[in-house]
# Entry
Amino acid sequence: MRTRLQTVFSICCLFLLSLFLMGAYAPQARSQELRIETDVYEGDEQESKSHNVTLFESGTVYDFVEKPARITVFRPPTQSRPGQFILLDTETQRRTEVSTDRIEGLMDKLSIWAAKHKDPMLQFSAKPEFEETYDEQSGVLTLKHPMWDYAVATIPAENIERLASYREFADWYSRLSTMLDGTLPPGPRLKLNAALEKHEVMPVEIRRTIKSASTQLRATHLFSWRLSREDHARLEAAREQLTRFEKVKNKDFLAERVERNVVRGQSE
# Structure
């Protein structure tokens, strides 16, 4: 039986899909490098449900997801041009590009729609307000609401510029994930990212509890302030794929991705 939260996710997915389809190594200074290894678990499970490695280098971010294998490249916006995500499908050797302007427009429409929806969870996600506490001695940051909690173990950021880069990527990646996966509006995660930057800390473990859901999600982050030789080789391979993969329209790229996910789900 579908839970209420699953129903809400489905509503968001349909709404975003309709909006989306209508819109039809030269190494730099070490201070620009950052490596984050992330595992996501359900509750206290020992086996992660997803694993990805995120590499910051020369002003560009490369996110490598293990299963299904895919690469996301993020180029931040500047004063003269919008930012850009490039999605690479290593199975089909195809890529597509999405501007941050388009993502922002979709998120604005989603938030307006969700704020007017009768479902309390959608309303909250559109305009979340948390009770925030931060313990400097333990490094524990909490954001509490009757429907949604974050409990975060943190470490001090070694470099404020890299913290700002992390926050910018995390914000845009949350918006992109909402657009692609049809999840709730990203407001709660954006609030958490802002709190992390305010306290000048990086998250090593995030526990997110949605009160109406039956499980808790736990994400662990391992930070390294330099890239390894293997990381640089991985970046070189990704840059080669950027030039070689066929560029396709968003709708064609996403339709193929959805179809493969359905096939995988039926075979599991």
